[in-house]
Design brief:
Blueprint (H helix, E strand, L loop, with lengths): L5 H14 L9 H13 L7 E5 L7 H8 L4 E6 L2 H8 L8 E4 L12 E7 L8 H11 E11 L3 H11 L11 H10 L2 E9 L2 E8 L2
Parallel strand pairs: 1-2, 1-4, 2-3, 4-5
Antiparallel strand pairs: 5-7, 6-7
Length: 207
Amino acid sequence: MATGSGKIAMKLQDYFDSLAPTWDREIRWEGVNCLKNIVQELEIETGSYVLDIGSGTGILSPFLTEVVGEEGRSIALDFSRKMLLEARAKDSFAVTDCIQADVSAIPLCDNCVDLALCNSVFPHFGDKAKALREIARVLRDGGRLVICHTMSREKLKQLHRSIGGIVANDFLPDEFKLKEMMERAGLAITCLEDSPKRYLLTARKAA
């Protein structure tokens, strides 16, 4: 996961560190298949540079490395060291770079990424507006941001409330609020799907 800054972020980091050893036990086949379909639908070009923000234990890694090919670059970024350690232990985890960092301070140069993916992580960003600005900074002109979940916005909200604790209030903003934050970061929403089985938002950085 990759979130915000300050004391809350540190507590959230500890929270996800504690979940890392058992994280994959909660992953269901339906969710993996949903994510695989999303990656396919994005039609990522061979040779693309892709940033997987909040990469966790590397669920997207095999799909991304396959589509970018040998000429491309798949970068896993997470602020949880233990999540990254779990990812690195997998035979299926094959990325060009693996970075422990927070989304509010991505250690990459400007305009270097074709696609930034936020799978099951955006609600946990402490300062979402700042995170979007930082993502926009590393995206190339015309580059895309994708926010996705394997459930609807409302179901996700209910899930986090049921878990409680530090994630109890980690929700996806509504469409109006997201549009406002995106525009301020120099991003424009091109598609937003909120269905019972998935949430998918794509945005593009102005060329």
